[in-house]
Amino acid sequence: MNIPAALITGTALVLAALASALLVIGGDSPAYAVVQLVLIGIVALAQLIMLAGWRLSARMLLAMALTPLVVALLSYILPAYWIPLAAWDSWSQRLMFGLELESWRPPLLMTLSMMFLATACITRARVRLGGPLLLCIAALLLLSQLTVGQTSTSTHPVLRYAASPLEQLALWGLLGGQVLAALPGWKTQTAIVHRALWPSLILTLLALLLWHQQKNFTERELHAQLRSESQLLADRLTSEIKEHLAAMRRFTNFWTLFDQVPSQEAWARQAAPYHEDFRYFLNIAFIDPDSEILLVYPQSTINLGIIGARLFDAQPAGREAVSRALLEQQVGRTDVIELLQGVPGIIHYLPISRDANRTLGAVAMVVSLPILAETLFNEVDTRRTALVLAEGERVLASQTPGTPLGPWQFETLLDVAGQPLSLSVQPDRASLLERHDRYPIASLTIGLTLAYLLYLVLYAYGSLARQHRTLHSSNVELRREMRTRAELQQEIEWLARHDELTRLPNRRLFMETLKANRQVRPLSILICDIDHFKRINDHFGHLVGDRYLSQLGEIGRQATEAHGGLFARYGGEEFVACLPEKVADEAYGIAESIRQRLHDANLRHHDGSRLTVSIGAVTLLEGALELDALMQAADDALYRAKAQGRNRVMAAPELIAAGS
Predict the structure, then answer these.
(1) DSSP letters spanning 383-419
(2) 5: left (phi over 0), alpha (psi -120 to 50) or beta
(3) What's the rounded Cα separation, in Å, for the pair 334 and 331?
C-alpha cells in the first residue's frame, strides 16, 4: 500500500465523517449537504480499499456512489421538455429515500469532480485508461469551484455550482491520494503521457471557458427575460388604470348634461358597464356638494352601509381630495387610505360641474387595492410565483406559493393613477430550473468527454508509434544481423576455397575447378615448388617466408589468369595451376613465364642467391579425366626438375587416357 496516499485519503474520509456528524447534530442543515458528504465518504472509503488491494469491493462502493451522481448529471443536462422536474422528483424519491431532486442533488461542478475522481479510482488512474487526464480534469473542476463567479445580474445563480469549502478540501484530499498512488506508474511513460495529456488539457480548458461564458450569458438572458415579464405585468396594469380613469371622465361628463341628481336606477344603469370592465372598482359613488354619499354601485352589502356617510367627517384622510373636487372643481386623488369598507384603497373624485362656480356633485371611483392585487395576481401562476404589492414598507397584499422560492426577486413600480406602488415578483426555484437553459452544461459535458476521447486516441497513437519504432528498430537490427551473418557466411565460404595468406584459391577450389573442366580438352596443369624454401624460414623467419609465398602467388595468378586459368596454393610452398584448353607448349610457356618472373623479382636467400622455383607440367589431350594419374604425372615432372638442378620447367609426356 502507498502509505502517503492512504494517509491523505484517510484524512479526506475523516473530514467527510466529521462534517456529516456536525450537520446531523445541528439538525437544520439542508439534506443535500449531508448527501454530498456521504458520497465523498463513500468514494474515500472505496479509495482506501482500492489501495489495500480489495479491488472488487472498492468498485462496488464506487458504483454505489456513481449511480446518484449520474442521475444528478442527467438531471442537469436533459431539458425539462424531455423529462419534467416532477418526473425527476418522482424517481429521486425512490432512489434517495423520499427526497426530491433539489433536496439532495450536489452542485454541478462537485458532481463532475466526484464522477471523474470515482472513474479514476475504478481504473486505478492507469495511463492507458486516461488516468492522468481524469485527475487533471478533476483538479480543474475543483479550481473552477474556487474561481467560479456569480452572474452579473444577480447575487445568486439559479443552479448551485460549487461545494462548500470543507467539501472542496475533502475532494482535494481524494485527488492528492490518487495522484500519489498513481505517480510511480506514470513516470515510466512520461513522454507518451505528455504527448496525449497536453492537447486534451487544452481542450478541457476551452470547454470550461466556453461553459463559463455560456453560463453567464444564459443566466443574464433568463434574468432579463423574467425582469421584462415583471415590468410588462406592471406596465399592463398601469395602462389599464389609465384607461379606466379616462373612462370615468367620460362617465362624469355624461352627468354634466343634467341639472339634477340622478336616480339610483339611472346611476346603476350607467355605472354597471364600467364596473364590469374594471373589476377592481370597489364601487362608483355619487357625492353631493356637502360630501354626503347619495348613490353607490354596486349595491352590495358592504357598499350599502356607507350610503349617507358625510366624507368630510367619516374619512378625514380623503378630505383634501374631496374638497378639491367639490370646491375647486378639479380631479382629486387620495393616497392609499383606509376605505369606509375597512380595506386599503385609493379614491379618485371627479367633479360634475354645472357652471364655473357650481357643482352638481362628484363621482367617486373607489379602487380596492386587495381586489386590484387579486386582479393582478390572476395574471400570474401564483402556485409558482410569490407576489407582494406594497406602498413603501407597507404590504398591501401578498401571495406566496408553497414551493421553495428561487434566488431572484424583481421589484417594479406601478403607477395607480398617480399613486406609486411597488410590485415584487419572485419565481419559485422549480420554475427557474425548468426555464434555465441546459446547453451550457451539455456543452461542458460533451467537451470533457471529447477531451477524454482525444486523450485515448492520442495515447493509442503514441503507443502504436512507440511499438512501430521498436519494431522498426528490431527490423533494422535484424537486417544488420542478417547482413553480418551473410558477410560472415561469404567469408567462411571464401575461406573454405581460398588460402588466407596468399588470397589464392586453395586445394579444394583447385580440385573443384578440375572437376568442372573434366570435359575440356586439352587440359593442362602445373605444379610449382619453391626451391630451398625451408632455408628462407630458417634464416629470415616465417614472416619473410610468408611474404615470398605471397609474391610468388601474385606472379602465378597474373600469369595464369591472363590465359584463362586458375592459380592456387596446394599446400606449404607448393602451388598448382589449371589451364583449360591449353596444349603442352602453351602450358610450358606459361610455366616458364612464372619461373622467369620470380627470378626477376630479385628475391634472395640469406647467402644472396636468387629465389627460384621448379615447375612440373602435364597435358591431357584425350580420354577420361583421372585426377590421381594426372597429378602424379605432373608431380613426376616436378621431381625431375628438382633432380636436374632446380629452377627449371619440366613437362611430362602428353597423356591420352584409356577409353578415349
Answers:
(1) TTEEEEEEETTEEEEEE--SSPB-S--EEEEEEETTE
(2) alpha
(3) 10
Residues 6-44 pLDDT 10s:
677 667 667 666 655 555 554 445 666 777 888 888 888
The one-character DSSP state at 123 is: T
As a dihedral over the C-alpha atoms of residue 185, residue 189, residue 195, residue 196, rounded to 10 degrees, the angle is -40
Indicate the residue type of 82: W
Q: Is 124 left (phi over 0), alpha (psi -120 to 50) or beta?
A: left
Query: Which cell numbers hold the place of 160?
Result: 448551485
The three-class DSSP label of residue 336 is: coil
Whole-angstrom Cα distance, residue 300 to residue 262?
19
With contact defined as beta carbons under 8 Å apart, do 559 and 575 qualify? no
The span from the CA of 298 to the CA of 623, in Å, is 158
Grid coordinates of 37: 458528504
d(CA 608, CA 623): 46
DSSP string, 486-525: HHHHHHHHHHHHB-TTT-SB-HHHHHHHHHHTTT-SSEEE
More confident residue, 9 or 464: 464
Q: Is 659 left (phi over 0), alpha (psi -120 to 50) or beta?
A: left
Query: What are the phi and psi torsion angles at 172 (to 5°)?
Result: -60, -35
pLDDT in tens, 545-604: 999 999 999 999 999 999 999 999 998 899 999 999 999 999 999 999 999 999 999 899
Neighbours of 293 (CB within 10 A): 22
Beta carbons within 8 Å of 267's beta carbon, 6+ residues apart:
286, 295, 297
